[in-house]
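Lecture 7 notes: from sequence to structure.

We start with a single chain of 211 residues. Read the sequence below before looking at the structure.
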Amino acid sequence: MRLTIFGASGGTGTQLVRQALERGHEVTAVVRDPARLTVAAHDRLKVVTADVMDPAAIVSAVAGADAVVSALGPRDSGPTTVSQNGARSIIAAMGKAGVRRFIMISAAGMVIDAGDGPVTRYVAKPILKRVLRHGFADMGRAEEKVRDSDLDWTIVRPPQLTDKKGTGRYRTATDLNVRGGIRIARADLATGILALLADDATVRRHISIAN
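Now the structure, written as tokens:
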């Protein structure tokens, strides 16, 4: 499969690139600063330096891809538009390139639903939503843009991310949070996302994933 990955130099993006290559995929990693990409050179890896916020600059990076994955997200707790502007630009570029399959990484913390236990629903998440209100607001608007598109999208919602070693084991829930899903290793998140790429049952669905 030919994959284009945005946010490829971040923690989750790096795991996605590495694991995709290990599984035999062809990867185009889109980065702003190639020096930050820690994945070794590979004959199936193409590194593209581009401003993701400029649709015209990334059309060539998504052209010919079987799927596009966005691991973009805010880096701090202050006001931000990174997620929504990135989503808008990627959607526009995919439209111009005629590419349909899109997976966007969002966050389970901003959603309270029946999948959450009482403590999570009434204590933990209300606090989390206040602390991370700017980032969650940005991700919420990014999700809206993705849902409003005509792409074959999947929105993936992980909880707190860690850099622990991947176990290859994770739980998922469709259009519902994972009960007791507090954390997930970035390596396991990447494994789960790669498994979703060819799963038509996840198209136009929200998939929560946790260890």
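The chain is about 35% helix and 20% strand. Keep this in mind for problem set 3.
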